[in-house]
Amino acid sequence: MMLLQRVTRTQRRPRTSTSRPRTSQRSRRCATTTAEQTTEQTWKIKYLYDGACPVCRALKKTLEERKGSEQIAFVDISSPRYDPAENAGVTFDDAMATIHVVEREGNAITTGLDALQKLFDVVGLGWAFKLAQIPPFGAIAALLYKLVSKNRNALGSSGEALGSLLAVGRASLELRGEKATCAEDEECRDVSAMDDIAPSSEEGPSKSAEVEITRSTSEDGDMQQGNGAPEQQLGSRPEVLAAYTQSSGVLRGAIVDTRTGEIRGSVEEVAMDDEGRECLDLNVYANGIRTLVQETKWPGDIAIALPGLLGRGEAMREAPGAPPVDLGARTTFRELESTESASPLVQRRERAETEEWLRRAVGRDVVVLTSAEAHAYGHAEEAYERSMERLCQPEREASSEQENRGEIDDVSVSSSIRTEKRIRSPLCVTVTATTEAIHVAIFRDGVTMRTADLRGASLGFWNLPVWSSSPRPSKDTPAEDDAWKRWAERVQHYLERIDTILLEQGFLVDEYMIAGSATETFKLWAKHIPKSALSAPLLEGPSPRYEGLRGTGIGGGFQYRYRDDVALVRSAIGEALGEAPQLVPIDELRGLFDRFCDEGESDMGLEEFVRLVRALGVRMPDDEIRELVSDVDSMCLDRVTFDEFQQWWLTVIGQAAEVLHTEDAFDQVLREESTGKRVVILMVGFTTCKPCKKFLPFFEKWAADNERVARCVRVYANENGSTVHLARDRLKIRSTPTFFIFKDGDRIVHTHTGISEEKFVDGVDEALGLVPEGSYAEKWQAPTSTIG
Description:
By secondary structure, this protein is of the alpha/beta class.
């Protein structure tokens, strides 16, 4: 908050009131340029130093303050501009291993102790080595060197005595074989976390024929985007690592084709140590996913079907290697509870929190499904086609009679059928049931309908004492045993409650599909449930073997594709209104909404909503359009109110300091902010970077307090192949956290490393024009005779 106040005060102050005139800044830059030119003419040896490391900067400053330093050219290996070809072929990794000095004549390379001796000889500190060899004095000097060097820049030029003492300490470290590198509490220098992940192709994102972004003239002239943006397409994910929890407590995983559900390669199984817990422990599942990743050597995205239980509390806070997730005051496990016992809004929030927690814990992008959803996705298209066939058959017969009488043509028949599909939209309900729990997934028009409220069905009371004598019988139980009837009564009781709730909410149910392990004995118990008990037939689902795994892959792939394309809708709305999505005023959003409502109406039909999306220039596949409609129409009334539209908008525009999981997503952020009204601040870290976690609370608070002037986003460089390509190959990071500030799209105006809050604020202030240009360099990178 204090920084925000500072920003506000500075913006009010006239530009001419600054105490540092522009002329003095130009003079300083000219002086620096002259010094660099002088160095290029006089240097005899190059010192390859790590400019991101305070210890290395301390040695550099010690050398610069001595006579003879003009013979040394200081080359910063942490700079993205560092080129091994210009420095005798010394790579960044080689230079990080030990001190390197390159001689001007012959490009001779000296390393380690000999390199340090050369540097000290040039500036008249050769005596430091002799003094460092005296054990007591050398040890004390080494300790002081470690303590003082971290704050050497803040100390400034502290005199020849301190510089000499630091020289002795540095020599002592080298003689003792100790590695003097950056302190772990400031930044992480180990970038090897990216080496085990294959980067995405440098040719850029793959093309998908299913998503098309255009800015050509539409049927709604007022939505035309003029010249607009070029066509943009996001790549789909042809395969994911799918993980499904078996009722036996085994996590089964395999690479799955997201279109066909075909399993590629072998199926791996991991035993889950989850016995005796009151509810799902995500630590257990995170460990299971990591094992599957190692076994399959999978570098990409993950979809997991959880048992449908809500695991909360400390287990979600303390995943090894995962930054903390803010769960408010909820710090303990709650009692075992069915997912369906929460409101749709709470379910959506908790699913998002679980996905974010798992992403951080396993270092991969993760989509979470319930076990019932996984099975439903496995046969969703077939169920949708069956539903539409049954639904449209009466209309086809009636239309055929009219056509025979010459009262209707083929075009109007097709239109009538499409209208009927949209209005009636019956539901397909998939049910999984074990002795421990019952779970439900509702699909409408072939896509998940997560807005149905099933709290009244009391599915969380599946394990009431009254049912203790009604467990699910084993497969070898005789068919005539009354256990099958008792189990059928238990299932029927809750199916009837679900049926009643859906009918009361005005839905038509087309079929109830039993899925999962309950299908193995379906014929033995389902015959005890009267057909008249439910408003729709009770059907036996496909064989459970690998069906949940296949459905997890299909459903996960669809959710990834849908999420990417919703981001395109978000971007298109912002572009249409001339603002970054997070900055769109509510009244302008309302104006866009009203433009597509019928005259005199305050809400719109689903057809008008689809027309709004298409008028923005976004072309989405039919299944994604249906999912989008289901998400927005939270009241399930086949009408969209502005309140529903606004609620949906707030869930898709992203939060302050949001995590991005692909290079495509990052490029989209740059496009959204290309108007220049805000800068984009990117924080690049690793999932295992302790300094990153330490700095994160400050970064998130700063982002929330200053969202009007900056959009802050984060990337974990070692998350997947796409983030590796962005961080290592495109941005060329050398340590984490590394910060980049972008203006007007993809123009980088500032970069720095480390977790100094003061350094971060100074860099942002200069990028925002709140302090004179060059202020950051003057404070943090004092002009020196440096090249490279």
